Fold these 2 entries.
Entry 1:
Amino acid sequence: MNAYQRGPVTLRGQHVPTTTTDQRLLDNRGPADWLHTDPWRVMRIQAEFVEGFGAMAEVGPAVSVFGSARTKPDHPMYALGEQVGAELVEAGYAVITGGGPGSMEAVNKGADRAGGTSVGLGIELPFEQGLNSYVHIGVNFRYFFIRKTMFVKYAEGFIVLPGGFGTFDELFEALTLVQTHKVTSFPIVLIGTTYWQGLRDWLRDVAVEEGTISAADVDLLHLTDDPQEAVRLIRTANEERRAHRPE
Ligand SMILES: C/C(=C\CNc1ncnc2c1ncn2[C@@H]1O[C@H](COP(=O)(O)O)[C@@H](O)[C@H]1O)CO
């Protein structure tokens, strides 16, 4: 059976295309289905990484803050989010959020009002609302996994306000990366003791007891109600890390 060679790929029989790559490139009347194939998707993924890395390259020391998209501006947690944004800026950090509404908006607002750098890494969603108006550097991602890379790659710590599945996902991504030493052991601070205590108790009483995590893993989570303390924890850990970094 004759073989058709497309770069490293060999195609035979019914898999041999009836048109050539050049023909499809140059023919603007042809079918556009190939645009939606996985190999083409890889190009979009690559382009999204390039855009993201480019936008974030000069942000400087930053902290990623996660939290509910549903927090209303009149909720006490919104005010706390603003305070978190402002405290981070006071401590010399840029602030990175998901760029959406709720707690993300509160944190971006706090950073903006404090005169700092406010970054929003948005995500294309079916019910998209766009980036909040307090974002100075905004990138809208098509792919969750690329956006998650940016949250981690450019942060020296993580602050997590109360939230739902999106927040849990981001928290556990950070925790897993730190636990497995895939990233530097940056601090992870949960704000809202009433909200998070149950989770930490469950980790200690069930997960540690069952042996699915170790007791030391639970200690990766710091709990507080005080934004100042949250930022202090991150700053102190980073100062210590820098002091002990080999020359
Ligand atoms: C639900 C609504 C809007 C959603 N818009 C979002 N924009 C940007 N980032 C988002 C959005 N929703 C979730 N995220 C990410 O997950 C975390 C919040 O998720 P949760 O389930 O609300 O806890 C947050 O940190 C974002 O990174 C309209 O109300």
Entry 2:
Amino acid sequence: MIKLVNINMSFGGKQVLNKINLEVAAGEILVIIGPSGSGKSTLLRLITGLLKPDGGQIWVNGREISGLSEDSLIPVRQQMGMVFQYAALFDSMTVGENVAFGLREHTKMTEEEIQKIVRRTLRMVGLSGHEPTMPDQLSGGMKKRVSLARAIAGNPSILLYDEPTTGLDPIMSETIDRLIVSTRRILGVTSVVVTHHMTSAFHIADRIAMIHQGQIIETGTSEQFRNSTNPIVQQFIHGKQSHRAAK
Ligand SMILES: Nc1ncnc2c1ncn2[C@@H]1O[C@H](COP(=O)(O)OP(=O)(O)OP(=O)(O)O)[C@@H](O)[C@H]1O
């Protein structure tokens, strides 16, 4: 469960988030949409504790984290998996070593246990047998899937995705969308997905939240978004869809 209460955030005197209130229920997929620069990634970084808000509270699995020290944040972060926009794999390590990295760093698991988890998570993302492959031999979509396997390996209760389908072709985007949904179904994780792709948002979201000029201007199901009477929401949705169709 994630809950943001009255979050304010500024950078160099410029207010980026203004009294944000947002709740993500356990096991829910919440998709965050909004124009470039509206504060979506900032919101994710606040949830991980990488940034501290100027004001407000951030609750993660029943704990208020905005005042926690780096040390106290470690167990909170261990409950989270992150899939970044640019897969952020270690290029000098094999796929297997990338997926195993967090387990080797943060747990006392035996090598046998680690290998079992690596095998299982790579199977989940459709990359069985790719343990010895080096990242530079992978396509963008495969890298994203390794990144998801690495995030899942730590058995998180929360998964945060920052632009998981950016730069991928429509077929690979659909594959990633399906993985986000099946990962939630299999692991029961709470998921927050920042995306620019409205098609993805409508496919995967239990609820969508739209940020505009630092504020959440609408939350609701895909259906409620499609039928929104807010002109800013409609303009955003249709702008995005026609932009994609024109590509
Ligand atoms: N560390 C930082 N220092 C200064 N300004 C920042 C910092 N991080 C973000 N910003 C500013 O905050 C605003 C929101 O940035 P953010 O990356 O959260 O937007 P976004 O909605 O994720 O954008 P995009 O869709 O383009 O990724 C931008 O104006 C950005 O320049």
